[in-house]
């Protein structure tokens, strides 16, 4: 019987393994589904233009303009342009020059010389179209007068998928003491477990991308960040907690964007540990999170013996209120940032990654891929930037409050 189960699991894993084998660590460009187009007839004057790049997976990006001559610059994180030539892009002849390539580790750059001053009107990343796989990055630029041509020298010039340093609100001081606060970020799923999927969109890829954006903001603010995974690999749930503990993390944040039947859930929500949660959606999500570990032969249900469970519950009497305190700070900052949340933004659930008795832990559901509004938010650079900055501010405020409470308890 055991051999039959092993064979069944192997057969179930074959499609995922085949797909992983074909997937590059870096995104690639699909020229057949990419193009530069111009609106209206060519009368010798600059025209509105649309740049459409289809890439094999979603990536963070940032857009800005430079002058002398006027240029559109798009920086992409983790796109491999080798093997594709910019001159082969359909519509390339519409602009004086176009080039792309790697310009520093982890980043690639597209530079498009323009026939005059332009402004960015829309920047959208969404699922690829026309039978293509991956994501479509679409930029709409329109001609403007010289006085309205804003280059990167002005803080208002860039539409960032990763926020520019000037746009980051100063955070409260990190916690008191000799070492900075250390945050463990846990991008959900990975490897043969893509998480929720809607078309070519996978929860695992989206959360890894968002975790990198949040890491950059936290690091810039003076915090230390450790990640439970840094690539598309499968990490068992218990291992994620172990990694956070080994790194001596002060706070654990798991990132997800799940799927539930349409109409059942929408909006950002934050979960803390609660094994008695009777909310049907919370129970279903907890089962979904544990399902991949069960398929991999890791049954979490039997990992806590009776004595250990009692000791863990005792330890949680101190850590659980700290987890709830962070959730409240996060909700407050997200509200201030104008981020729409679930009608009950702080909830409890028996997510295995929240079981740690010694590290304050939360799970952030950034939204639900099954909800069209949430899906649009997850691909909106402005929404992602505001959400990441709000969470970073919450970490700073929580650290300050947590240190003050710890000092009072010692008196």
TrEMBL record:
Residues 241-396 form the MurNAc-LAA domain. Residues 1-18 form the signal peptide. It comes from the Bacteria. One of its GO terms (cellular component) is outer membrane-bounded periplasmic space. It holds the Pfam family Amidase_3. Keywords: Hydrolase, Signal. This is N-acetylmuramoyl-L-alanine amidase. The lineage of its organism: Bacteria, Pseudomonadati, Pseudomonadota, Alphaproteobacteria, Rhodobacterales.
């Amino acid at each position: 019987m055991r051999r039959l189960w092993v064979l069944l699991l192997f057969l179930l894993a074959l499609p995922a393994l085949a797909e992983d084998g074909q997937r590059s660590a870096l995104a690639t460009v699909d020229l057949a589904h990419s193009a530069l187009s111009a609106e209206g007839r060519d009368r010798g004057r600059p025209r509105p233009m649309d740049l459409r790049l289809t890439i094999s997976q979603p990536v963070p990006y940032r857009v800005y303009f430079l002058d002398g001559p006027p240029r559109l610059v798009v920086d992409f994180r983790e796109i491999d342009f080798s093997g594709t030539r910019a001159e082969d892009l359909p519509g390339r002849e519409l602009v004086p020059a176009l080039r792309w390539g790697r310009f520093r580790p982890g980043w690639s750059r597209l530079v498009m010389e323009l026939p005059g001053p332009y402004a960015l009107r829309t920047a959208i990343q969404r699922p690829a179209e026309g039978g293509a796989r991956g994501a479509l990055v679409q930029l709409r630029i329109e001609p403007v007068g010289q006085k309205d041509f804003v280059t990167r020298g002005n803080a208002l010039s860039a539409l960032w998928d990763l926020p520019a340093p000037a746009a980051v609100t100063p955070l409260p001081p990190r916690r008191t003491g000799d070492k900075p606060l250390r945050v463990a970020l846990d991008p959900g799923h990975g490897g043969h477990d893509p998480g929720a999927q809607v078309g070519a969109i996978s929860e695992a890829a989206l959360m890894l991308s968002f975790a990198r954006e949040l890491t950059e903001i936290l690091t810039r603010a003076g915090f230390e960040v450790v990640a439970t995974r840094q690539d598309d690999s499968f990490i068992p749930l218990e291992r994620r907690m172990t990694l956070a503990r080994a790194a001596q993390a002060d706070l654990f944040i798991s990132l997800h964007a799940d799927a539930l039947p349409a109409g059942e859930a929408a909006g950002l929500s934050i979960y803390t540990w609660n094994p008695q949660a009777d909310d049907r959606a919370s129970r279903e999500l907890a089962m979904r999170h544990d399902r991949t570990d069960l398929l991999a032969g890791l049954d979490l249900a039997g990992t806590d013996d009776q004595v250990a469970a009692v000791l863990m519950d005792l330890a949680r009497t101190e850590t659980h209120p700290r987890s709830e305190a962070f959730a409240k700070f996060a909700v407050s900052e997200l509200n201030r940032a104008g981020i729409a949340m679930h009608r009950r933004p702080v909830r409890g659930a028996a997510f295995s990654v929240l079981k740690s008795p010694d590290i304050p832990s939360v799970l952030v559901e950034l939204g639900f891929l099954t909800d069209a509004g949430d899906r649009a938010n997850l691909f909106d650079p402005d929404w992602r930037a505001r959400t990441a900055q709000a969470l970073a501010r919450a970490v700073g405020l929580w650290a300050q409050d947590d240190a003050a409470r710890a000092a009072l308890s010692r008196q």
